[in-house]
What we know:
The protein is mainly alpha-helical. It contains 14 helices and six strands.
Amino acid sequence: LAMTTYQSLSGRNGPFQCQAFVTVSQSFDVKVLMRDILLQITQPVNQPSSPSTGAGKGPMEGLLKGMETWNVVQLARILRQQLDNKRYLIVLDDIWSMNAWEGIRFSLPDSNNGSRIVVTTRIRAVAHTCCFHEYDRAYEIKPLTDCESRDLFFKRIFGSSICPEHLEDISAKILGKCGGTPLSIVSIAGLLASKPVQSKDLWEKIYSSLGSEIETNPSLDRLKKILELSYNDLPYHLKTCFLYLSIYPEDHNIRRKTILRRWIAERFVTGKRGLSVFEVAESYFDEFINRSIIQPVTTSFTGKVKTFRVHDVMLEIIVSKSIEDNFITLVGEQN
């Protein structure tokens, strides 16, 4: 939602002179955050860089030369100078602690000219800490309504909001397990859409595999259960490729071409009759997209995914699975 809002305000005729979208996450480095914001705000507003992927050479290249060696005080000073008296939009996505907010907020000046700072967090106390002006507001995202949940679920599977009559009852039961969480709904729908036949028996089996206790679990535990089911349903050859994504840090933007080449280099992919090894790797990647277990970040003008992310809850699951299967060894924090 934050990304959609950010992108809708981008462009030559947008209301802001400069803008940036950065992901904070649990393991944050305030210097990295400041550098990322600086790189993005120095791009022309009608050609914004991809959030959290860095930027190309901009008009302020000379000023930012040597930025990698700057300390926090230097970065904060330059950042304030670049934002001062400008109308800017900064999105700080997925803040987990008050320390993260306190570490960055003094670098964002208030020139009383309509600038906006949007913070997303799953922790209510952090949201209220970020509201230090009387006109700041904390918005708690509500679960989807039953009607919205059905629309999202059926459109993902059938391409329309109409459900076959024989699947209506079981779909209502499955949606009850999802609790109005969009990621849960899309994940289950992606799993069902991957099946060649949409039978009531198959849907009943998937419903039963979620367990009767899931509806009484907290929303995060419920989401984990559903995402774990999506992982367990993968064929063996796809599981190996998917587990490989556990080597990347949380909220990292992964390039599609890079991961395809890595799968091939690790010999997770072999050629098939009539298809090159790279084409097979692409078909594996497309299957992950179709199942909605990875999240596209940027796409080409033809609609092909260029970069993507693994949701942090799904990443937690596959890191655990990778360690359990001795697929990877985790050294220190995953950052």
